[in-house]
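TEACHING EXERCISE
Course module: macromolecular assemblies
Task: Read the component lines below, then compare them to the predicted structure of the full complex.
Student: A.B.
Group: 4
Components provided:
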Amino acid sequence: MPDVDVLVVGAGPAGAVAAWQAKLAAPQLDVVLLERDPAVGSPVRCAEGVGDAGLREFVNPDGADWVSRRITDVIFEAPDDTQVLLANSGIGWILDRTKFDAHLAAEAAGAGADVRVGAEATAMSRNGDDRWHVTVKEGGRAERYRARVVIGADGVETMVGRWAGLDTRVPARDMESCAQYVLQGIDFNADAIYLQFSSAIAPGGDAWIFPKGEGVANVGLGMVALKSDGRNARQYLDDWIARRFPGGERTGSTVGGVIVHTTIAKTYADGVLIAGDAAHMINPLSGGGIVNAMKAGRLAGGTAAAAIREGDTSARRLSAYHQEWMDLLGEDHLKYYRLKQALEHMDDAFLNALAHTMNGVAPTKRTLGRVLTHALIRHPQLIPVVARFFV
Amino acid sequence: MRRVTPDTIAVVDLAVCDRCGLCLPLCPPEAIHLELNTLTVDEATCTGCEKCVAPCPVGALAMVAYA
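Instructor-supplied answer key:
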């Protein structure tokens, strides 16, 4: 029975950074990072977009082989296809998640973590010895690990959270059902991401084009099933692509859920921390989760290492992680969530009018702030919500 | 645990399911499991609420009569 200090379940950005940072904080600890799939980073369930500043807190994208494309522009599209090129949208990157996740796992391994692929945690229990006993299926046989701290970085479907007795359920209105293809041979500006908002195209969410290169992009959408006309996410996407890119060649296909909610009420238990999508740490407005996951992983790895060194891995000690996360981003996500709810009042006719108004503004002044200001002039009931948002 | 036996319960078509895991946190009684690349709905726990059906991005879940 392997006896480890930190057992991280899931080698996505949250888990890999958690293992990496735990090892950096306390090199003497035994840290194991489990990945259930045969390789880290595959399959990709992600649009792969990330902002520049957050990414650079962890890794340098300049010239990296895990980057697909540098992005300089954001184009909003109204339901009637009117395009608004945002000013001052900053720099972003479209990653190659397969290589990116492998890179982060290699950093963890380089720091001394034991990265095990094809290794799936299938159960865990507490046996009165202050350790978690985790059943791990690996190469057709089951192994029991004993761990002081288990970090659940096991994504949308988190089983670690469930096993630890934490409530990780999501209300239907806060789950975006997503479908995406990699399309080749399509015509668009490969320096820009496109976001189209329309209840007919992607009710309750949006459709996106995220460039992987010239003529190649992740083309997908997320929608809320409660607002559907009966089609599922892939059917909505097929209909959008048939109109938008009828000649595009599909070379990849993925689906998945994006939780546009707020952080779960409790991200910790005795000997357990939950990080990333598993803890609903996605920005509910943008749907972005990669940098959030890495930031949470850094906090979780650091807290786990410190707690073990102090000999106290109780829920009370580990709750420091929850507080640090809420101070860093969790409270912001509560504000973004309220803003998301307010923006749901904008119907397609309003979005079209807003786009036409914005295009009457000088190009250099078409900022996100101005878009919101124009929205407020027409929807004054949003003002209290947005006032909270900017406070 | 459910108190009333439902008339219908959810079943998954594994030939269609992409194993994305979206349905797991949507299930109020946590009756859906994903293990070793296979999704299962626990018949004894499913309450027939249908909350998992429409959100499936590929339509892999459906309700069937439960006897």
